[in-house]
Amino acid sequence: MSSYMMTVFLGAKTSVRGSTAPMPVLRVEAAGYHGPADVAFQMYNGLTTEERVKVAEEFAKNVVQWRDEIVADADRQRTAADELAAAREEITRLKAEAEAAS
Question: In terms of pTM, does the model score above 0.70?
């Protein structure tokens, strides 16, 4: 087993894909399909099916938790002022539509 620390910055083009043959592998492609900074997570051949499922479930659970934390942070950053500005824009748009219909 290799042991090292690596940081890969993810962006809007990041793709994630997995396969099970010949052994389970999860590929994270930071710059998109077959771009630079690809990372592959592979499981040992010696793992049982149950162990493979456990590893995949742990990975998935933590990725979902990470996503939920990002969403919660985004929600916290949304302010009343932002919502008020959006409401004012919507009012302006609706007024323009009403005037155009008259």
Answer: no
